[in-house]
Amino acid sequence: MSECLVLGELPDLWLESKRDDPGVVARPSDRGEDGGLLDGGGQLLGREIGEELTGREDTSTCWPHEEHPRQFPVPPGLRSSQSSTSSTTGYCHPQSGYVFGIGKNLFDKLQDDPYEYRRKINAYYPFHDEGEWELAKFLVENLTQAQIDKFLKLKWFHTRQRPSFTSKEQLLDWTDALPCFAPWKVSNIEFTGYKTTYPVQLIWRDALEVVKQLFGDPVFANHITFQPHVVNTGSQREYGDYFSADIAWKIQDYLPVGATQVPIILGSDKTPVTRTTGGLEMHPLFISIGNIDSEVRSKATLRAWRCIAYMPVAKFRVHPDYQTILQARLWHKCVDLVCANLKIAARDGCFMPDPSRHIRYVFTPLIAHVCDLPEASMIAAVSKSASPITMATQEKFGDGVLYPPRTGKHTLQLIYNISQEIDPWDLDRFQKAAKAAYLSGVHMPYWLDWLYSCPSVFLAGEVLHTLHKFFADHPLKWIKEIVGKTELDTRFIIQHKRVGTRHFTKGITHVNQMTGREHRDIQRTIVASIAGAAPPRFVRAIRALIDFIYYAQNPVHSLESLQSMSQALSDFHAFKDAIVEAEARRGKKGAKEDFFIPKLELLQSFRGTIERLGTLMQFSADMTEHLLITHCKDLFARTNRRMNDFTEQCVRILNRQESMELFNLYALISSRGASLVNAICLEDEEVTTVNPALSWVSRVLPDEAYSVHGPRQVRNHFHKGILSGDALTAFYLTSTPDFKSLSPDDICTKYALVDFDHAVSQFIARFSLSNGESTRWDHRHGRFCAWNKFRVQLHSAFQSRVIMPSRVIQSYPPSDSFPLGNCDTVLIDVTGDDGQITSRVAQVRLVFQPKVPRSSDLVLPTHLSSPLLYIQYFDFIANPNDRPELAMWTVERSYVVDQHGERYRRGGVVLLTDVTHAVELIPEYGDKVNKNVSSATCLESYDRFFLNNFADKESYHTLSTEFV
Questions:
Q1: Do 692 and 220 contact (CB within 8 A), yes or no?
Q2: Cβ atoms within 10 Å of 523's Cβ, excluding its own
Q3: How far apart are CA 848 and CA 738, in angstroms?
Q4: 285, 313, 406, 455: which could join 281 in a potential S-S bond, CB 3.0 to 4.6 Å?
Q5: For residue 159, what is the DSSP state?
Q6: Where is 230: in which H helix or E strand?
Q7: Which residues pair with 282 in a beta bridge?
Q8: What pLDDT sits at residue 80?
Q9: C-alpha distances out from residue 5 to 2, 275, 344, Å
């Protein structure tokens, strides 16, 4: 389908268009008490619709939850687990989320397909059976058209049955005939008076139809929220997903009684598809909804994000000074077209069935637009020298002050004032006047008439660009200037390698193009690594920024964590003069004394954004960056590489891919006779995976779980592993040990543990005294089995119902590669003579268990019947307050002196279940690193270490709260 839209001489259209509302800018004062944080340019919705619906409440198709109790999914913040020790309470908005009848969910609508009568006989029609469908799906997803043709012509088929499809054309026709919703359109767009190098085409589909698909998809039935709610943990308010934050409740107050919010989240970015000069660029627009749990939205393979448009990347035949303004105006007009029906739904509402077939009266406010800073400025219609979300301008970016929000009302009023005097299409004069007011020259931003939407709110703090790329572009460069590239690289190269953690074998300064993951990995150890090589106040400024970055990534926030996050940013501004004094911040002309960094100013708004919209991780651009690869770059290899119709080819491929994914699950469910409604699961479950499709199929068709793609389950060692006494920690050892039978002498020799025999004796004596169990077993003549590693698994420190992936703890004996062994460090609970439990840091040197011959009738006591650890202790010698620039615990190896005056490491034997956490130690390098040390000998060559609380977000939370 092709449409033609004409843009051009529009000096009057600015006030006359936008859904025939002439007052969108003329009445900027007609906004709510919030000063314009709820809507883009119009007024708050009146109560007329609400009054009309209230009159129908006594009918049989409209009820609040408490009048007709049904099963609805529990909001994420109110879900709990059996292991939870916190008291979580909460309540939902009393006039939200009513049901207005029964309709059809997404899978029900698939039954309206004209070929459904054939699928009652063969669920995989037009394919012969499930096997042929799997073959077809494999061919289309993995091979090019030429390769498919080649495959179908193989002689192999001469002696075997051929598939029903005999050519690539027939195969593609059949897959294109599968049920599909929200069809794509192609609109030709023209600018009267402005020529482009190539015709401008917008390839798009109706955003509202795509939202209906997402909202009605039964896959998400157990991962969707309909009501604003308040969550309290103990005495503290908790901020998680959007519906637990302030704006959700505030918008609900303005909606008709019983209405349901479907919060819109957009994402966009421009990306080069080919690297050649003047190569192909694409600018896709993605959409998701805030009802779906952020854990689901954060994974690209779970289909919670959909592409709704490919914005034209036009080259205008004009002076370069006007290229950007025309491209920005074109982009805004295209988004306005794609989202037109969403704006109508935000204003008037519409009825929409949810995954459980319940019809809801929904409104669609825009709550977030995920993008990088240049795109945020374009969206907010402001210049690069002004903040897109506050009133700060360039000379104020580094002063550490939170300025008032740059509301839509303010921006629209400025545009209106300029347009009263200058024709918006007099580009030269209008652009100059706009820049003087810190505007970009866009005169009709797409959010202009989107009710309850304001750029100072929906341009939410974005973690990937505003935090991680900011860190790489600025703090990391300051560190390189102070420490030196060679010294910094060496400090990273020699760090101890832990399983599951990135190790920079070649250092960090040689990498020019880093990903967000690499930025995070550097942040893990950067603070401890530069200690001693940089001035203390400089280190403290860097540590304050890393503190802020870690707090900002919390999946759940409390008022206490928000205060800590704000304090970290204040600390940076208090100590940033040390960066200037060290001349670490440099430009082309040498040292710089200012902090005019736009992203630094954005950090001031993070706390307010969390309070209004919820945790920032639900709006990270990690997802859109991944979608750019799958929806743009990866597609290039699957096309014929002709530039003139490349985007249309991409659309056909994506449409086909979406149809196949939908049909695959639908056919699986329907062919087995299972219900097309995903039943709500109300049991308190511990989460080991966030894959809604896998969870659904595993519940109703457990034998078919293998056929569902996407993130797999985290192995739950709490089911069959070894549990700690409080059942909060699980341990796993392989059923077959690495060494099946070792004598004490073997262990002393192989592991270089001179006091192993003495340590075991003390362990047996201690437990025999405490529990009264004695044994005839003599460890000096006994045999032991040993393991080179074990796994420890915990629940999330933030969400107790979530089970984290297990962490590997190594305890390898000395070898050629590791002359002193390869052993990790842990935190253990030690019970003193007075019965008090204290935490100690220890290095695991051996995992072992006594072994009794099968022919023996000897029964070992309890403390010898489970796995044991031989460990070597570290002593705490300094607390975080002693080194405020680091705020880390300092530990030192513990030594003892024997009767002959020889010093050796203090060791001991403990139960495996005494381990509470895996921890990371970073050596105290001093001013210069010892270059004779390698990553294989790092832990063995130094005696003094920092207990790294930045090892991961879970460790950071634990070491800064529970451990303290």
A1: yes
A2: 21
A3: 10
A4: 313
A5: S
A6: strand 229-233
A7: 271
A8: 59
A9: 10, 31, 20
Apex CA 420: angle with CA 416 and CA 425, to 5°?
Answer: 90
Number of other CB atoms surrounding residue 2 within 10 Å:
8
Where does the pLDDT of residue 357 fall: very low under 50, low under 70, confident under 90, or very high at 90 and above? very high
Residues 6+ apart with CB under 8 A from 218: 105, 106, 107, 355, 356, 676, 677, 678, 696
Closest CA relative to residue 470, chosen from 538, 531, 542: 542
Instruction: State the pLDDT at residue 68.
Output: 47
Rg of the chain over Cα atoms, rounded to whole angstroms, equals: 31
206-242: pLDDT as tens digits? 999 999 999 999 999 989 999 999 998 888 899 999 9
The widest CA-to-CA distance across the chain, in whole angstroms, is 101
Strand 944-947 relative to strand 921-923, pairing:
antiparallel
Q: How many CB atoms lie within 10 A of CB 358?
A: 20
Q: Are 602 and 398 in contact (CB under 8 A)?
A: no
Q: In whole angstroms, what is the distance from residue 699 CA to residue 241 CA?
A: 26
Q: Are 98 and 62 in contact (CB under 8 A)?
A: yes
Confidence of residue 748 (pLDDT cuts 50, 70, 90): very high
Q: What is the pLDDT of residues 717-738, one digit of tens each?
A: 888 899 988 888 999 999 999 9
**Residues 6 or more apart from 160 whose CB is under 8 A from it?**
none
The whole-angstrom separation of Cα 730 and Cα 692 is: 25
Distance CA(219)–CA(697), nearest Å, equals 9
CA 317 – CA 337 distance, rounded (Å): 24
> Looking at residue 191, what is its pLDDT?
80
The C-alpha atoms of residue 707 and residue 484 are separated, in whole angstroms, by: 52
200-204 and 306-311 as β-strands: parallel, antiparallel, unpaired? antiparallel
Lowest mean pLDDT across 191-195, 291-295, 841-845: 191-195
- Burial code of 148-185, b = ≥16 C-beta within 10 A, e = fewer? beeebeeeeeeeeeebebeebeebbebbeebbbbbebb
Q: Which of 340, 406, 386, 356 is nearest to 217 (CA)?
A: 356
pLDDT tens digits, 635-681: 777 777 776 677 777 778 888 888 898 899 899 888 888 888 888 77
Angle between helix 145-152 and 130-142 (nearest 10): 140
Identify which has the larger pLDDT, 43 or 100.
Answer: 100
CA distance readout (Å), 244 to 36, 85, 219, 225, 801? 21, 21, 23, 10, 18
Measure the CA–CA gap between 76 and 798, rounded to whole angstroms: 12
Q: What is the pTM of this model?
A: 0.89
DSSP designation for 465: I
Residue 110, phi then psi, degrees to nearest 5: -65, -25
pLDDT digits (tens, 9 = 90+) for 158-194: 888 889 998 999 999 999 888 888 888 888 888 888 8
The pLDDT assigned to 790 comes to 96
